[in-house]
Amino acid sequence: MYISEIEIFDFRNFQSTKDENDEAKGCTIEFTDGVNVIIGHNNSGKSNLIKALDLVLNFGGSKKLEVDDFNKNMTIADLINEPPKVKISLSFSESENEEEFSDDLVTASTWLTKLNSPYSAKLTYIFYLPQKEHDEYKKEMQLIASDDIENYWLAIKHQFLRKYTSKIYSGNPEYKNVVDSETSKKIDYQFLDAIRDVNRDLFTGKNTLLREVIDFFIDYDIKNDAKIEKKEQQKQIAKKRKDFTEEAKKLIKQLQTRMESGKKEMLSYASDTGASFEKSEPDFEGHILDTELYSALKLIVKHETGITIPATHNGLGYNNLIYISLLLAKMQKDASGDYLGSNSKTFPILAIEEPEAHLHPAMQYKFLKFLYENNKEKAKQIFITTHSPNITAAVNLDNIICFNRDDKGKLNVAYLGKVFGTTETDSKAYVQRFLDATKSDMLFSKKVVLVEGITEQLLLPVFANYENKSFEDEHISVINIGGRYFKHFLKLFDSEKPNTINKKITCITDLDPVYTIDDDTKNEKCYPFEKRDDLVEFKECSNSLVDDYAESKHPNIRSFSQQKGVGKTFEYAIAFENLQTEVFIGEKIANKVELKKLIDEYNKGKTLDELLTIFSSRGSENNRIKNAISASGIDTEEKKKHLIASRYLNSLTKGENAYELAQILQTNLEKDNPVGFKTPTYIKQAINWICE
């Protein structure tokens, strides 16, 4: 059995809606059987989801809510008409390959909503104002007569919240069958919040957690030996306890002998103060059980050198892992029918909030790997909330649930594993493989810009600054996907399809014009000025993405590229539109002297022929450019721009020059009188669109 779904009505930032029949519908989130990793930007509802689970499953916890736990996106008319309430329903489903008449089915027998296999069950938490209080409530609300909604919430807080009550119903909530205490005790819900003091919660046997774990695992070699029958196990453990008690008696005897003389002096005060009377006087005796000595044990860390240090001297992250391991050991203990009999838990659930708060990336990865490999043994279902791209990169797409809220606060829940159909296994495998810690950032940011390479990734935020925009303020991530692999990643964000992440996506891509010389020749990359009469075909754009996601073609995805017939690549556009300055010519660029001279002579109004004499004739590529420029039928002024842009493009080593150019342009922008630099037109359009 596993929790397959939660439906939340008006709890914190989970707002219910009305369907076509005016019936209330809550926010529904589906879960997988096993590990569930919930991600999303701040205030998207991740922590509130864990709290909602806690309200239903943690039967030992408080069920009382505060006024701020209600969803406050209500009108005054709503509050006057009906008192607010919170409702949280958990749906359970039969696990794959679950044994017939399993312990899970027995536990959920009174929760069932569907008897046939695969069975279904439900638990529903409701926090509400009893019906008998409704008349008084409406009367008081109508008397407020204010346009300030906060006055109505204050009245609820001070006059009616104390009258609210909570119930947990099993099965169909309409039948109002309160869950029975016996089956509720079978659920073991453990929650680790992001802010926790593990040094307070463990490390000595006085602590309840450590005592319980030690008591379960003491004599584990006997308890866990399947070759020994239960009665024989009990007999052997009883003998060990007896032997321990006999040895302990010797210790007590030694202690009493050492105290004999001092005891007489110490207890003489009892006679003087009158504590001894009617022939009675204080004395000392004692015995020690093995369980009483647990408090003498302290958790230490022992290094291979033999040095030991108290666990309290560890780093917080290391101690958190120790704490979690002990908690999992406790869950194993609580699920042991041999140890606890009918009091054992049958449905252990572990919820962890932001494990990255105390773990560095390598430890995060190892921790997630451990949970994957051991979740069925220690916890039947695990829920993790995180902001960490490292954790997201370490888990399968099928286990990721992504929360995203639009500007109006509406929640979009995406299930990354369900985005890809049965015929799209290649795309799913590609995204899974390349969704590393860097690219995973696209799942957390509010908006995303996808680019082909490192140059665009480094320069886009700088160009945004040139346009008086800030990607940081807008929570925009620029993701380098390393080529033309947009189609795989875009499937995650296609809002026209179910289970996707509905956020604004900009693709910045190159036109990459190509030509075909003859019928036997494949498309070859070329320059935009190389259109000739003898070509079989000339494509001013070889990139289908440019047209597929052009303006108004898709609700949340838009592609931007250079002007057709003029553009080629990102770097080409930088030079083509900025020949009024040489600021973009860095010191590490090959041919920088020639390039600066070309730009200088261009700005002096030199002719094309004069520029061609400066343009190097070394190499076949340079001669190809010169010949194509000369033969081209485009405007002479445009030829000059293409000549310099093509020379600039072929002088770059992308990675190193990208870092230098980003630094140059940012430094220029910070000057009191910066040199005039123009953001390429299509980049400016992309920045304005994503920042709208």
Automatic annotation (TrEMBL):
PANTHER family: ATP/GTP PHOSPHATASE, ATP_GTP PHOSPHATASE. Residues 223-265 form a coiled coil. Residues 1-391 form the Endonuclease GajA/Old nuclease/RecF-like AAA domain. This is Predicted ATP-dependent endonuclease of the OLD family, contains P-loop ATPase and TOPRIM domains. It comes from Saccharicrinis carchari. Residues 443-512 form the OLD protein-like TOPRIM domain. It holds the Pfam family AAA_15. Transmembrane segments: none annotated. GO terms for molecular function: endonuclease activity. Keywords: Coiled coil, Endonuclease, Hydrolase, Nuclease.
